[in-house]
Amino acid sequence: MTSSPRAYKRAGRRAQLMAFLSGVTLTMACSWLKVGSAGLNLSWMPLSASPRHQSAAQWLLPPPMPWKPLLKAAQLRRGLSFYGSGERIERVAAKLMAGEPITAVTIGGSVTRGAGARSADTNYPSRFFDFIRTTFPNRRHVLLNKGIGGTTSGIFSVCAEVLVPQETDLVVVEFTFNEEANLPYTSPSRRGFEQLLRKLLRLPNSPAIIMLHHYAWYFSFGDGVDSGLFYRQAEEQLGTMAQYYDMPAPSVRNALYLQMQADEEPYGVTRVHAPGSLNSKDRRIRVAGPRIAHKYFYADTIHPSDTGHQIMAELLAGVVMTAVQTVAQRAAPQAGSGEAASSEAVLNATQLLAAVGSTRLELPPPLVPGNAENPTTLCAMQEDFKGVAYKLNGFSYKAEKPDKVAFVEQKWGYRAEQPGAWMELKVNTEEIPGSQGTATVLLGHLKSYSDMAVAVAECRSGCRCTRSLIDGLWKTKVSLMQMHKLEVTQHARCIIRVTVIERSAAIPGGARPAGAGRKFQLSSLMVAHTPLVLSSYQQQAQDLASSTARGS
């Protein structure tokens, strides 16, 4: 929860820090930031105008965050489950300390998009970006939340080049809940996740990746318990990838598990904000009313509340501040020598950046043998998908949820509502002009449990492919964008037609399955020239269904 202005009456002290950092000069007091047996200390010593006054100043500044912190130092230490060499994140820290702008992006599913937060200002990406702006002010920072509710890492793996700017310095990756637990590393899900990481790491600025682990208490069940199982989720396997690729990995579970287990304020789990929520045994979970809502971490059985989102932002801020401290300690000897240099070293931007290097960083071989990332030649989704339509008959461009504020939340796409409607898409499937062989086309379509139709996809002109069925219906009571794969021959002018058809006994599920209807919606198209790893993530759909359908 946000604090009142009265909580920070010493605003002048923070202003000293702000001016200090934005002025491209860092003055190190010997006890400015401390790491020792006690770990990271987010207390700041006052920074006076003259370096000769630094060692004498012993009063503490509040942490450089625009809210009252909810995490204690011990929780920050426990929550940083892996830091690694810090090579990439410390480059970002050096730029921030030198007063330079950065480009930072968050990617993930509904948690990253802000589900559970009361407003766009209180979700974890907004709070984390607020921390960056406040602590390292620069008007040229580019801070982007690219989270898309109802999506998975597979879609980001295909479209990473489109969704994440080439000049990015820092990417937060949050997919731990979305990924199935306990899969072989060679499974499509794990291979696709690794491909996403490798694509991000190869961006021109050699960006830092922070793998943020969310923890869904009520979906961590099994082995005799209905919630709060420590090892239920995919965190262990994704954490192994973070270790292999040297990525910091803050963890909600590791930071708060003992306090959640004890139902301690403000990390409580015995109540949620959403009425009607049920646990894995269909037992109703008590509701946290307005007066006590701030005491509980979860808005529903999956998504964090404002309290939970703030905690996730603080975990990210802790990673950045760990890097800042390390850079400052490493750069201090460059400013001078002797005892005075260790306590009162003045560091300029050149020294800060020199301490971390600037050469492009190379990647190790894939963790999963043979799992190199696959380039894509087209990724048309969200606004870009509208222009892919070639001919329409009974399809129109509509929003699935028009009452939502943000375009991405409205889930726009081409929709038909009658059998016989068809839509043609025109794409270039050539890798290079005149190339032969095949390409993979992925059609993104809405899959839901009510009023959904079935369609066929076929190649009409230029390219060739096998006619295939696309069913928009499934039993799990949740709506997600899913990908339908077509292997097509390469052609500069490939025309693909999607036609809504009547259900019949010959179609899997029969002529009249429960939930069948007349609606069919296409929302994205992707083209790649190497085999793409993609999965429907059925377990995620079941988890989401259990949370949203029962509680509605």
From TrEMBL:
Protein name (record): SGNH hydrolase-type esterase domain-containing protein
InterPro entries: SGNH_hydro, SGNH_hydro_sf
Organism listed in the record: Chlorella vulgaris
Domain SGNH hydrolase-type esterase intervals: 107-311
